[in-house]
Amino acid sequence: MTGVFPVRRTVTSIANLTFHDVEDQLNSYYVLESSEPLRTLNSSMWGEGLGWHSRLLNRQVDRNYFCEDPLAEMHDFMRERDIEVNSTAALLTAARVQDRGYSHHRSDCGLTVCTWVTVGLGNKARAGAVKDVNELFPGTINIITVVDGMLTDAAMINGVITATEAKTAALQDADIRVNDSQEIATGTTTDAIIIAATQKGPSFRYAGTATQLGYCIGRTVYEAVKYSIQRYNIWQHDK
Fold first, then answer.
1. Which of 76, 85, 143, 201 has the fewest Cβ atoms within 10 Å of its own Cβ atom?
2. pLDDT (tens digit, 9 = 90+) per residue, 171-197?
3. Cβ contact 220:105 at 8 Å
């Protein structure tokens, strides 16, 4: 990747996976790049569903971002920065990517899980609550979790459930409420997630909270969400 903006590269706790942090004004972003393709499950439209990707991207945009064709716009963004489109799974956020939370955990069986989270709380929501559909607006908590292990497709889907529970637990413990109501938020209106696996090392068919994999996902997501909430609140206080 090339560009006129500062690029910081660091190694991660997972072999062959590097973290790239790029300051690009309102288009700041970070990319996780693997020397070998990762098995991915992505809830967004850029590299959607199940697939294989070598790069995981979280891009910051202006809160008023609007595009008639966000798929094409994101692909243009990638090409302009020499990010290969077909090998990249991506997320979009109006939250400040420099306020991301990060956590990693290694289990007794040799499993390593790393999670990166950006939290924006401009449109907090509670799943299942009664709300006027005209009051639904974008607001994003983005989660990227990378597992150094072998996961079945079912385990990856199970991992999304565990990550979502951990995200909600962090919001509860931070007492994040939906606007002026007394309802605790379970997320925001456009939360997104990428679960990625190296498909090497220990093998897992499940990722619920009773498993080592689920425990690692839950702890890393909880800790990363909690930290990013703190950073978001500091930024809002200082504005």
1. 76
2. 999 999 987 678 899 998 889 999 999
3. yes
Quick check: 155 and 4 in contact, CB under 8 A? no
pLDDT for 66 equals: 81
46-77 pLDDT per residue, tens: 999 999 999 999 999 987 788 889 999 999 99
Rounded distance, CA 129 to CA 148, Å?
A: 36
**CA triplet 53, 55, 59: central angle to 5 degrees?**
125
| pTM above threshold 0.90 | yes
Helix (H), strand (E) at residue 104: strand 101-106
22, 56, 83 from 25: Cα distances, Å: 9, 20, 18
Length of the chain counted residue by residue: 239
Burial of 34 (0-12, 13-18, 19+ CB in 10 A): buried
C-alpha span between 95 and 98 (Å, rounded): 9
Distance CA 145, CA 59 (A): 16
Distance CA 217, CA 196 (A): 11
